[in-house]
């Protein structure tokens, strides 16, 4: 590990990125911090508000409810997408023409833009003209995502599973492809069961890419905006108002810049914490792998 | 800079963070160190511990604001204790 030469001049090569990030992220974020301790009625006039917005938001149900819905959403889609993705990856053909066909078919949902996915499901689920909605209505199932809590949640979850399970499956598939045949041959000689092969060969070899898949899916789902916004608009009531949707309502709908800034800072802190935990777990796992 | 809506408090806040980053960069160059493994079971350098301190302090401040009702500067005192603990044991 340590036989690489150290050359601190390489940091100079990072400078352009640093400048770009400062311009696109750090300075706007600093502005958000400034907004969060002030009140404004537009016109770029600000009045000091101290920590009032933070206090107000922490004491109100609005942010906690949105956070609760957000955590529930991320937990549910991870609990479905990760096992399902692994299952699909295990059952995909390893080589030949069908492998390519599978890969292309699996990638298709990933290529569709978020708002198009939202529109597809918005129409697909409609009771009057949508295939899914109409079929369910014919079967006598009471399904209306604009009015019913469970229908709305089922729709946004199934939509996300449809859109993103492929990502987990493709990453898992890549992990599986990197396992040399010798491992399977050794397992065969030992007469290992299918479960043992999965548990002691495939899962450990996939764990690295699966961590990345979980991180990506958690981040994306935790920041999800477009799809539920297009399909349910956060409704019925506030039932599918996730953090981003609530934040946009606050910042652009009500133009409450101060509270919205405080809200986004707390949102950012949670994301920063989770990213750090994931990053640390991943690097620690890599380091252990390297020592073996 | 007017569009950034600066206040004295936020300017001091960012000034302190910038000073901390500069100090730790200087320390890292002047006194290189090897990472150590602490109570969390992960390898950390001084920079990692600073990050853990700052992120934790943000949550301590929010929790104080939400739960205590006492003046906010007391939260900073807890943060200092927390910082000392992080630098000692993590």
What keyword list fits this structure?
heterodimer; A: 292 residues; mainly alpha; MetI-like fold; two-stranded antiparallel sheet; 12 helices; B: 90 residues; 3 helices
Descriptive account of the structure:
The complex is a heterodimer of chains A (292) and B (90). In chain A, strand 1 (38-40) and strand 2 (46-48) form a beta hairpin. The mean pLDDT of chain A is 89. Chain A is 75% helix and 2% strand. Chain A has a domain at 70-252 and 272-291: MetI-like fold. In chain A, 27% of the residues are buried. Chain A is globular, with a radius of gyration of 24 Å. Chain A has helices at residues 11-36, 52-59, 61-91, 97-111, 114-124, 131-138, 149-177, 181-189, 194-222, 226-231, 243-253, 257-291; strands at residues 38-40, 46-48. A two-stranded antiparallel ribbon of chain A has the order 1-2. Chain A is mostly helical and 292 residues long. Chain B has 90 residues and is mostly helical. Chain B folds into 2 domains: 1-32; 36-90. Chain B contains 3 helices and 2 strands, in the order H-E-E-H-H. The longest helix of chain B is centred in the first third of the chain and has 23 residues, at 8-30. Chain B is flat, with a radius of gyration of 15 Å. The N and C termini of chain B lie far apart (39 Å).
């Amino acid at each position: 590990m340590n036989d690489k030469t150290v050359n601190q001049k390489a940091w100079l090569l990072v400078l352009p990125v640093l400048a770009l990030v400062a311009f696109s992220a750090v300075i706007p974020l600093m502005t958000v911090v400034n907004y969060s301790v002030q009140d404004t009625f537009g016109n770029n006039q600000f009045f000091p508000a101290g920590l009032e917005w933070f206090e107000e938001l922490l004491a109100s149900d609005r942010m906690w409810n949105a956070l609760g819905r957000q955590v529930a959403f991320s937990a549910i889609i991870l609990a479905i997408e990760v096992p399902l993705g692994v299952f699909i990856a295990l059952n995909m053909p390893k080589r030949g023409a069908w492998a390519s066909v599978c890969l292309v078919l699996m990638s298709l949902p990933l290529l569709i833009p978020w708002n198009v996915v939202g529109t597809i499901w918005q129409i697909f689920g409609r009771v009057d003209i949508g295939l899914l909605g109409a079929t369910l209505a014919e079967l006598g199932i009471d399904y209306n995502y604009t009015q019913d809590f469970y229908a709305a949640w089922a729709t946004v979850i199934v939509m996300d599973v449809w859109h993103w399970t492929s990502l987990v499956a493709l990453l898992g598939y890549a992990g599986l492809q990197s396992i040399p045949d010798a491992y399977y041959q050794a397992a065969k000689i030992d007469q290992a069961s299918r479960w043992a092969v999965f548990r002691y060969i495939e899962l450990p070899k996939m764990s690295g890419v699966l961590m990345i898949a979980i991180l990506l899916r958690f981040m994306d789902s935790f920041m999800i905006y477009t799809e539920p916004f297009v399909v349910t608009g956060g409704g019925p009531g506030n039932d599918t108002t996730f953090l981003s949707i609530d934040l946009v309502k606050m910042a652009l709908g009500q133009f409450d810049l101060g509270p919205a800034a405080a809200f986004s800072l707390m949102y950012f802190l949670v994301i920063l914490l989770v990213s750090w935990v994931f990053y640390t777990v991943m690097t620690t796992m890599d380091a252990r792998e390297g020592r073996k | 800079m007017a569009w950034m809506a600066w206040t004295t408090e936020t300017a001091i806040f960012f000034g302190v963070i910038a000073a901390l980053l500069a100090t730790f960069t200087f320390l890292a160059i002047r006194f290189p160190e090897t990472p150590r493994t602490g109570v969390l079971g992960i390898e950390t350098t001084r920079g990692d511990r600073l990050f853990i301190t700052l992120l934790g302090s943000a949550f301590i401040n929010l929790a104080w604001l939400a739960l205590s009702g006492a003046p906010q500067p007391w939260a900073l005192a807890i943060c200092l204790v927390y910082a000392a603990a992080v630098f000692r044991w993590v």
